[in-house]
């Protein structure tokens, strides 16, 4: 059975900004609306480095996918994927092996609708319209089961997802539910925002960013490093462990020196941790 896109897209309040579409805007995508761009502009006034946050996270995800591909992973479950815009998982992975299978998961109707349009001709990539806070719905979805073989190692991706999930939903338990569905040899990659290493000025600007998102009913939950580390229970962390995103296996120039893109020199580089754990 072919998957069907959301039917309630016309009912979505396009006057209400959405974090997934704002993220698409920050990355230079075109799947966003005036309301998203207006709030994004306000956020940029308060926190000029917000686009750098998105770019650093996306660059980290690219490096993660490259590493997992090098370890032989050929199937990915991308939780809270948003719109698969520039630098997305399936393009990065299928460029190396067209047979690599990718399942994106999101609950925002417009983001999922755009994802269907982008993926409709790709037999090895799909999007599941579901709430990641209900693991059973995701894991037992017919599209997940069509492309993901849970007897073989899986690349489980949570890039920025847990930033939008409050403690009342038990992020550690959610990660564990997905982890336990994957066999030994699978990898779990998590990135999220933290203020642990931010200087006072950056913390103040970040507080303004959080307030603007909250006014748009988009709550953001930065976590400390200890909490983030707890999400990797049951896995062995891949070197270099849990570090600032730009420090996780950074790109290198031909001479072996570190190749820092300009955006990784901004205050945003201090605002997020990421790691990859291997299920033993």
Please tell me about this protein's structure.
The protein has 280 residues and is α/β, with parallel strands linked by helices. The chain has one domain: Rossmann fold. Helix content is 37%, strand content 15%. The chain contains ten helices and eight strands. Strands 1, 2, 3, 4, 5, 6, 7 and 8 form an eight-stranded mixed beta sheet that branches. Helix 1 crosses helix 2. The mean pLDDT is 90.
How would you summarize what this structure contains?
The chain is an alpha/beta fold and 280 residues long.
> What is the arithmetic mean of pLDDT?
90
Strand content: 5-15%
Q: Tell me the structural class.
A: alpha/beta
Mass-distribution shape: globular
SSE string: HHHEHEHEHHEHEHHEEE
State the domain count: 1
Q: What's the CATH superfamily, by name?
A: Vaccinia Virus protein VP39
Sheet with most strands: 8 strands, mixed
**First-last Cα distance:** 35 Å
By DSSP (H or I, 4+ residues per run), the number of helices equals 10
Q: Approximately how much helix is present in the residues?
A: 25-40%
CATH architecture: 3-Layer(aba) Sandwich
Low-pLDDT parts are none
CATH topology: Rossmann fold
Radius of gyration: 18 Å
The CATH class designation is Alpha Beta
Number of strands: 8
């Amino acid at each position: 059975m072919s998957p069907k896109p959301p039917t309630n897209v016309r009912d979505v309040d396009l006057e209400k900004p959405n974090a997934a579409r704002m993220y698409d805007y920050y990355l230079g995508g075109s799947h966003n609306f005036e309301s998203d761009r207006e709030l994004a502009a306000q956020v940029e006034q308060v926190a000029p480095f917000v686009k750098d946050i998105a770019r650093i996270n996306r660059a980290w995800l690219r490096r993660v996918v490259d590493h997992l591909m090098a370890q032989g992973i050929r199937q990915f479950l991308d939780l809270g994927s948003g719109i698969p815009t520039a630098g997305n998982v399936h393009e990065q992975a299928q460029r190396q092996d067209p047979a690599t299978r990718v399942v994106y998961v999101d609950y925002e109707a417009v983001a999922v609708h755009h994802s269907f349009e982008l993926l409709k001709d790709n037999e090895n990539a799909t999007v599941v319209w579901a709430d990641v806070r209900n693991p059973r719905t995701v894991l037992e979805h017919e599209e997940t089961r069509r492309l993901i073989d849970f007897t073989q190692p899986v690349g489980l991706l949570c890039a920025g997802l847990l930033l939008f999930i409050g403690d009342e939903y038990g992020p550690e338990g959610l990660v564990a539910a997905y982890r336990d569905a994957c066999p030994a040899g699978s990898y779990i990659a998590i990135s999220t925002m933290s203020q642990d290493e931010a200087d006072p000025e950056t913390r103040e600007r970040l507080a303004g960013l959080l307030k603007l998102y909250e006014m748009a009913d988009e709550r953001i939950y930065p976590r400390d490093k200890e909490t983030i580390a707890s999400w990797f229970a049951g896995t062995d962390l891949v070197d270099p462990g849990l570090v600032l995103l730009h420090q996780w296996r950074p790109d290198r120039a031909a001479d072996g020196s570190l190749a820092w893109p300009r955006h990784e020199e901004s205050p945003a580089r201090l605002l997020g941790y990421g790691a990859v754990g291997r299920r033993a």
